[in-house]
Amino acid sequence: MRNTIFALVVGLILLVTSPVQSAKPIKALIIEGQNNHGVWPKTSRMMKSYLEQTTLFEVDIIRTIANGTDPDFKPRFGDYGVVISNYNGAAWPAETQQAFVEYVHGGGGFVVVHAANNAFGNWKEYNEIIGLGGWGGRSEKSGPYVYFNAEGKQVRDESVGRGGHHGSQHPFAVITRDSKHPITKGMPSQWLHVQDELYDLLRGPAQNMHILSTAFASKEKGGTGRHEPMIFTVNYGKGRVLHTPMGHGDYSQECVGFIVTLQRGAEWAATGKVSQDIPSDFPTADEISQRKFEGK
Ligand code: ZN
């Protein structure tokens, strides 16, 4: 009897202290501090909240100084499974640039959101990591335009011209081009995104890049008349990168399509897999779906 009680107690202790009872959270780091989008402190908190809602992530936010290169900006990238950039500002210190490239090349995850693809027009490796970018002095020297034509064929267009542009903001349809990829698997073939800037004319090295979803930038709204990349991945060394040009305003980031893209994209960037289901409030082809952000 005594032995039985002893075994039960030991069993209970093992059960309570067992490390396998919950998976280790993925550590994520959001970078902010400079951005021509004044909504940034809020959007960083929104993205932190979205990631933590999945219970998969533990999120830190790191902020640079407000102007110029921050000599003390030296995140420990290696501590994180995924880094998310909400940063569009001055160059990082050279050693931080190098540490970042080594982090992604060595297998670190990276997520680039909206104006973070405006940053660092002249930083060669950053542009290889993000695939495409806009503004920041980008031109035909930066690489081709990449888009889908009316026949659904991907085009690499080397023609001369600026990098980065958008027409007027509006809700727009996002078309799934690869429904087998872990990030887009289960998403509708078309869904309506909440009002946003529809980035077009992005250009860059576009190596090892895979387009998962596009949006048609109509000429009526001032766009190119092309199907522009809206969700895409880049492989850089062993690293996985998820890039979405969506997310201009806090309202744009309240779109359930944006939220799910971020949540799934960050998990995929960190692990190569996605364990999250598509939620029942995901937008449809005809209706937007917005979750009001309750925080500040
Ligand atoms: Zn914007």
Account of the 3D structure:
Helices cover 23% and strands 25% of the residues. The model is unreliable at 17-21 (pLDDT under 50). It starts with a helix and ends in a 25-residue tail after the last helix. The strands form 3 sheets. A 9-stranded mixed beta sheet has the order 2-1-3-4-13-12-11-8-9, with helices on both faces. The protein is of the alpha/beta class and 296 residues long. The protein contains 6 helices and 13 strands. The chain is globular, with a radius of gyration of 21 Å. The structure holds zinc ion (ZN). Zinc ion binds next to loops. Zinc ion binds at residues 37, 114-115, 197, 248.
Q: What value does the average pLDDT take?
A: 94
How many beta strands in the DSSP annotation? 13
Task: Note the main sheet.
Answer: 9 strands, mixed
Helix content, binned percent:
10-25%
Contiguous uncertain segments of 5+ residues: 17-21
Discrete helix count:
6
How would you briefly describe this protein structure?
It contains six helices and 13 strands.
Question: Which key phrases capture this entry?
Answer:
alpha/beta, two-stranded antiparallel sheet, binds zinc ion, nine-stranded mixed sheet
Summarize the topology.
Elements: H1 2-17, E1 26-32, H2 40-53, E2 57-63, E3 82-85, H3 94-105, E4 109-113, H4 124-130, E5 145-148, E6 154-157, E7 165-166, E8 170-176, E9 190-196, E10 199-200, E11 209-216, E12 227-236, E13 239-244, H5 250-253, H6 256-271
Parallel strand pairs: 1-2, 1-3, 3-4, 4-13
Antiparallel strand pairs: 5-6, 7-10, 8-9, 8-11, 11-12, 12-13
Bound molecules: zinc ion.
